[in-house]
Amino acid sequence: MVATDPDCGICRTITGADGTQWVIRHQFPKALVHHYPLPPLGADVVPVYRGKFDLEGNTYRGLIKVDLNPRPRLHAEGVKDASFEELHKELSAGGVKRPAEWVDAKTVKIPAKSVPSPAKTARQPKPNSAEGGSFHVSEAHLQEIVVGEPRELDYLTFFLMNGWYGHDGLNTCYDGLDRQGRIEVKLGEWQLRLEPRGDRTPKEVRNHQRSTGASNITHVGRIRRDDGTTFDGLDAIQVLTVVTDLVGFALGRVTDFLLPVGYRDSKAVWSQWACNRVVDRPLGATPFLDLEHTAEQMAELLQTGYQTSQNKARWEVFKNMLGYHYSAEHDATVNMKVLLPVSALQLISYAYLVEELPLPDPNHLSNKDWRNLDTSEQLRRILDLIGINLAVPSHMKHLVNVKTALEKEEPTKTFDQLGCVVRLRNGVAHPKQKDALRWSVTEWAETGFAATGMLHLAILWWLGFDGRYVPKTAQYRGAGDAVLVPWHVP
């Protein structure tokens, strides 16, 4: 990387038992500083702007903020003085029955050509005490608000919602305290830095989210050109969109970046206020991350995933699989955890065997040949190429029960993980009365572990990931239990 950060320069003096002193100088970079201050842990609001704004042709005094819960929303609250005649007219216009129709997000404009200073408080605006009354507005269905000029930026900072937690990573200096967890990666011509928020320890942030289930800002990030040249903010936004898709895959739930701010000569000159995704609450375990290797895993995933995103066809397949992945990992029933991964694996099977492999390749299939295969064989072709071990683990007793029952039903066949998954999946996709309530919840659950585990590996392979992961069917899934992917090249 060409562009670098200076050390924080903070020194610590340590005194030994005999009075001898040593001065230790930090060699960590200072924590990233965002234009918008970090909201306190547990806060539900990030105040962005306070002053006048125009909404639907009316000018209000008030506040623009980002609500963090129950999901991020760009929210405008304001007041406007009004006469009694205006109030009466407004009340008389209410109660009109309207047909169902698409509703456009409303547009808010602020009287600022550059990025205004952050609002200091989220206090609701109050009307004047003049005679008459006031109109109140509270609108949280808004189009994005862009302020300033995005061209020729030096760097851009942003917040990340509901990110990961781990024990590894580089150190960062936050007001003299070193915090672990920073990652720095080169993404093509870009340089990305992501670090846990420094005002509280990562463990405190994690414990708060686990105890409350509330969304919050967990990381602060920065993106800039690796060679230090200027760039357009919209190009950086495209990179951050790829980054959040990859982070969401690693977490098994939707996340997003918030409040990107671009700088020129260390001055905030451009920002985009928007909440475009329905971010999932930070509940549930991450699918394949290992607490002892999380930063290492995330760094590699971002690098290989970004490289994959440059291939439009491959990235579209990943994005389509990502929807199945989110649905299977986050709040799905045990039956859906079996069904959804099969559909996602069919996507990658067709994309690789039919669309991507050249005709001379012995594994290439024509469209007709692929469609003539049954579901199990469509998946087996790709899983064998990836090198996934499909044997049923002996410690998964409920999955073993499924295997035993199916082999008793069909003595001439041997059922592995894939065979069990496809058979139970067929029971969901094509239900039969004789199979109703045949399998227990735990049998469905462990078959779902096998299905989602195969999908995790297939997506990691598709993204070119070559590092460590925690198998969904592993007997031990604690910190330090990650293993190398089966196609790893030493």
Keywords:
490 residues; 33% helix; globular; 23% strand; alpha+beta
Account of the 3D structure:
This protein is α+β, with helices and mostly antiparallel strands. The protein has two domains: 28-81 and 105-287, no CATH class; 311-484, no CATH class. It has helices at 84-92, 202-212, 233-251, 294-309, 312-329, 334-356, 367-372, 375-386, 397-409, 417-429, 441-462; strands spanning 11-15, 21-25, 45-55, 58-67, 73-82, 108-109, 133-139, 145-148, 155-161, 170-174, 177-187, 190-196, 217-225, 257-264, 267-273, 468-469, 483-484. Strand 4 and strand 5 form a beta hairpin. Helix 5 (312-329) packs antiparallel against helix 11 and helix 10 packs across helix 11.
Structural class: alpha+beta
Order of strands across the widest beta sheet?
A: 8-15-14-9-13-12-11-10
How does the overall form come out from the CA principal axes?
A: globular
State which percent range the strand residues make up: 15-25%
The count of strands amounts to 17
Task: Show the helix and strand layout.
Elements: E1 11-15, E2 21-25, E3 45-55, E4 58-67, E5 73-82, H1 84-92, E6 108-109, E7 133-139, E8 145-148, E9 155-161, E10 170-174, E11 177-187, E12 190-196, H2 202-212, E13 217-225, H3 233-251, E14 257-264, E15 267-273, H4 294-309, H5 312-329, H6 334-356, H7 367-372, H8 375-386, H9 397-409, H10 417-429, H11 441-462, E16 468-469, E17 483-484
Antiparallel strand pairs: 1-2, 3-4, 3-6, 4-5, 5-7, 8-15, 9-13, 9-14, 10-11, 11-12, 12-13, 14-15, 16-17
Helix pairs in contact: 3-4, 5-6, 5-11, 6-8, 6-10, 6-11, 9-11, 10-11
